[in-house]
Write a structure and sequence with these properties.
Layout: E1 9-15, H1 22-28, E2 37-41, H2 48-54, E3 58-61, H3 67-81, E4 86-89, H4 101-109, E5 115-119, H5 120-123, H6 133-150, E6 162-165, H7 166-171, H8 183-193, E7 198-202, H9 216-237
Length: 252
Amino acid sequence: MSDQKPSNIFIVLPAYNAAKTLHRTLDEIPQEFRRNIILVDDASKDNTAELAREAGLTVFVHTTNRGYGGNQKTCYSEALAAGADMMVMLHPDHQYDANVIPHMVQPILEGEADAVFGSRMLGGRPLEGGMPWWKYNANVLLTAAANIIFRRYLTEIHSGFRAYSRKYLETVRFMENSDDFIFDTEIIAQGMSNKLTFREVPIVTRYFPEASSISLKRSIIYGLGILRVLFKYWLHHNGLFRFKSFEPQARQ
């Protein structure tokens, strides 16, 4: 790994009802990355925020539920305001293995990428890890469609385990994105539109009752949302219709 110290690397945890899994997630974060951890509680019905404060985390609480995308907006805004040079988004539901964090940050530290995504497809055994077959097939098809539209290759666009450089988040207009799950695709499309660079690292995921997952109905809505984002990107990229959300942020 690079000799650069990770003092300005922030771990951001978008949390909702994560009390049962929070400590297991924190225990896996390598010691050298525990200095700056922000948890944003999205109006949980359990004591997630209380446990996070007891663990010494910096905690922000939404008084009303703003959705997964809305949670990420607060995560990144607060980390940027605190001086983060890089942010690693990790779900506190213990679905992702936080031991991978050093591999996630390395390409950004070494200037090889502006964003790094954990990929279950590179991990090699997503179905053995418990991913439902219908989710696996949809993942593959939607990622293939994205690669055709973006004209760049990623093995997965749906992972919730990601690292972004400060440059990335100060370039894209992430605050204009959806407050729902489609945020994850929009922020990729914005990066593609602004010619930012991406890398992937292999990960494995755990599927168990406490791990967050969306229903088949929500997954269908999410899939249709991805196709809508890709169509908008295609229109914008080909100059047929311009969308401000794909333009870079105005410099202060």
